[in-house]
Recover the amino acids of this structure.
């Protein structure tokens, strides 16, 4: 298929509320042309509303939406040159697969000949050719999903929006479709905005992840950046399985010294911690969970719990005292009150704790 | 053994409904067909078998043809109108608007009220000179008096207006229920694909309402032959049978002129027509209707 060049999308100061608190609260977000951006967050964080505002299905109370440099804040969905895939697929049950896919071409009065050609290409691409005469109810969930994709890509729009498109599929199909959608997006080159609550989906598919919480963007960055340098406590807790440990500085005992008066949280990922009798952090084992290649050891130090991902062969008993070691460079420091990352004080704190 | 008990249970469960169905539907229907081949019993004369004589009388009866034609016009006038109005009203009250439940209730009121009672109110509306319609007409255009119900040219139309008013609200409820089962994401998808309101209605909403349209139209056809209560109040079938319908004529023949055999013959015609229409509608529509 021909390649529609993606268009950039920019949200600035978007607010939408149906009551208190607002569903979307002063969201600013830049989505680069031709990139895959995932809106990630727990349910109720405003990610779907943000997508619907980009689509024009909801209008923001304040703020502007621009697509490809053009202000589209007041335009209806049809004038925004976008395609959208819905969570429920939203296929027309009375129309055949072919009619569903070409629905938009027909409403936009694309000549019949061209319609047929494009349908053939889209159907070939999505392997839907044998099913074109069927009704959606005669298709499996995965095939229905492809029809919805077909309807989105046939119009060759520069922007494609997807609202949790894989959440109704089983785990195996979801895995398959994940790589398929990513491949499709890269092949056709459109800008993708993809809503999901599944961090694995977001991290594996996206160029940029916009992590949302309570109506605002916590962090918008590449998956690697979010993993390596979470900007907030929320981001640190949301990304990673198991997520990053956030240990109050008081847990380090006398090593914390005068810093213990501050409400600092030390962030360290379970996978970079190891059991080391000489390590700076002393704790008691609460539980050890053997998973084969690794053992997740839950430890407790001064009323705070954290998880250490030790090697599979590690044997520790409940109640055992252990030391925990880690590299200074793997430490993150957060302000416990504001929830923000504090890189400025990191080196001083790290030196005090590990030195 | 257990099969036999199940068999008995099945019949026992069917029995109450069957008793009523047989007593009040099947038996009278069969009885009517038999009666149509006999003469009416009068005083000393017993009812005797007369073969097709009643049917011969029916073919020669100009009043029968008149009421049949009336009924045809009545059906043509009321069915499409009430369905179209019902659909428009349903689309309107399905939108978000102020006082929505009040408007829905107002639309449904004619269904709840007894037709006999509202016919009396409509009688006042139609009253020549000081009825509502004449008040408005004379007030605005100074057109003088109209006797809508007393004029053979307008009597049937006046009766049809009352029927449409009565039925549209009832059909609206079915359309409203059907509209609410259409997922909003379908309409949103259509909007994203560039469809305007008109296209969305004709290509998405209307096809999805087809099962309801079939149901409603079957009901409307049956009602157009069944609903005659208001004739008793408004016109009594007059003037000169101008507003009489088949069922009303059957009632008059049977219980005013006491010609029960001829009434039975007319009833057979009504039965046959209604069955054919219902079967025909299902065969005609069924292929075009999308069921979930």
């Amino acid at each position: 298929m021909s390649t529609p060049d993606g268009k950039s999308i920019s949200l600035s100061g978007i607010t939408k509320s149906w009551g208190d608190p607002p569903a979307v609260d002063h969201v600013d977000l830049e989505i680069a042309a031709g990139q895959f951006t995932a809106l990630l967050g727990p349910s109720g964080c405003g990610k779907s509303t943000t997508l619907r505002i980009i689509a024009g299905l909801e209008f923001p109370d304040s703020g502007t939406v621009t697509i490809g440099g053009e202000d589209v804040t007041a335009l209806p969905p049809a004038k925004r040159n976008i395609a959208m895939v819905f969570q429920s697929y939203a296929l027309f049950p009375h129309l055949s697969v072919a009619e569903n896919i070409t629905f938009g071409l027909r409403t936009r009065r694309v000549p019949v000949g061209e319609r047929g050609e494009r349908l053939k290409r889209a159907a070939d691409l999505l392997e839907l050719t044998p099913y074109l005469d069927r009704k959606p109810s005669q298709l499996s969930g995965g095939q229905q999903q492809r029809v919805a994709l077909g309807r989105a890509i046939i119009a060759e729009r520069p922007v494609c929006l997807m609202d949790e498109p894989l959440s109704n599929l089983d785990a195996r199909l979801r895995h398959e479709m994940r790589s398929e959608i990513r491949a499709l997006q890269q092949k056709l080159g459109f800008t993708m905005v993809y809503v999901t609550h599944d961090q694995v989906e977001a991290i594996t598919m996206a160029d940029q992840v916009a992590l949302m919480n309570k109506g605002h963007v916590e962090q918008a960055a590449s998956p690697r950046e979010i993993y390596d340098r979470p900007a907030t406590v929320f981001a640190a807790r949301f990304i990673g399985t198991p997520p990053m440990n956030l240990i109050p500085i008081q847990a380090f005992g006398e090593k914390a010294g005068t810093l213990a008066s501050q409400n600092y949280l030390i962030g360290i990922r379970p996978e970079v911690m190891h059991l080391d009798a000489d390590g700076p952090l002393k704790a008691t084992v609460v539980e050890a969970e053997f998973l084969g290649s690794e053992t997740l050891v839950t430890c407790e130090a001064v009323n705070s719990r954290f998880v250490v991902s030790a090697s599979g062969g590690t044997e520790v008993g409940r109640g055992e005292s252990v030391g925990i070691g880690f590299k200074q460079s793997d430490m993150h420091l957060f302000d416990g009150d504001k929830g923000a990352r504090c890189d400025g004080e990191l080196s001083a704190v790290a030196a005090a704790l590990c030195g | 053994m257990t099969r036999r008990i199940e068999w008995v249970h099945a019949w026992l469960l069917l029995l109450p409904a069957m008793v009523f169905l047989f007593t009040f539907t099947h038996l009278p229907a069969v009885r009517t067909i038999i009666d149509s081949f006999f003469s009416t019993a009068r005083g000393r004369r017993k009812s005797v078998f007369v073969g097709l004589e009643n049917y011969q009388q029916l073919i020669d009866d100009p009043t029968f043809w008149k009421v049949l034609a009336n009924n045809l016009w009545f059906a043509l006038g009321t069915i499409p109108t009430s369905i179209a109005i019902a659909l428009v009203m349903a689309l309107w009250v399905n939108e978000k608007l102020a006082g929505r439940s009040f408007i829905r209730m107002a639309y449904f009121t004619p269904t709840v009220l007894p037709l006999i009672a509202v016919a009396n109110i409509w009688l006042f509306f139609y009253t020549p000179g000081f009825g509502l319609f004449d008040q408005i007409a004379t007030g605005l255009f100074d057109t003088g008096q109209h006797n809508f119900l007393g004029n053979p040219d307008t009597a049937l139309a006046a009766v049809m207006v009352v029927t449409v008013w009565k039925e549209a609200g009832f059909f609206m409820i079915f359309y409203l229920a059907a509209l609410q089962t259409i997922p909003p994401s379908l309409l949103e998808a259509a909007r994203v694909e560039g469809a305007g309101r008109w296209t969305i209605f004709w290509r998405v909403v209307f096809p999805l309402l087809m099962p309801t349209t079939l149901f409603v139209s079957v009901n409307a056809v049956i009602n157009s032959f069944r609903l005659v209560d208001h004739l008793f109040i408004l016109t009594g079938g007059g003037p000169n049978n101008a507003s009489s319908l088949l069922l009303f004529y059957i009632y008059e023949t049977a219980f005013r002129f006491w010609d029960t055999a001829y009434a039975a013959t007319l009833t057979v015609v009504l039965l046959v027509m209604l069955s054919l229409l219902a079967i025909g509608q299902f065969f005609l529509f069924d292929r075009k209707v999308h069921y979930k």
